[in-house]
Design goal:
two-stranded antiparallel sheet; disordered N terminus; Rossmann fold; alpha/beta; six-stranded parallel β-sheet
Length: about 170
Amino acid sequence: MVYPCRVKNYAQISALQQGENLCSVYQTISEMMAQAILYLRYGLLSGEQCIYIAEENTKETVLSSLSDGGIDVERAVKERRLLLWNRTDYKPAGPFDRDVMFNFVQGSVDKAVAEGFSGLRLAVEMTWAPKSGVTLTTRQGSPDNENCEEEMIAVRLRAHRRVAIR
């Protein structure tokens, strides 16, 4: 299930189950990182491999924020429980293609499970989306909620061991 929303209650982040997706809306980098820290900490504690895909933030900024948020970043990175990618690691060059993205994410899930993780948890900075043909559209009747076009990927992955926050 996809939950596109402005996170008002951080409990909904830790309540995400494998196969669910949250398209988070935030106004500041600190608000975004607060959500990502909680989300990734829960994934690490649940035995999932966590991947943070950065677009706006540098690797150093993300690692520093996660560390300041109480995550043992050095250990998690060393044990490959936490990976940091940039957009080109996550989204192939060219126009957005749902099937290519689905296959890439599913391959990443399969690899994480094969490496002994209980699943895969993705935290993706979606600032690349408008430049890549992915539209962010407002849901009818919910002016503060946004619906990521990647919802189709999330729907196809619903039964798989993957959680995502965007």
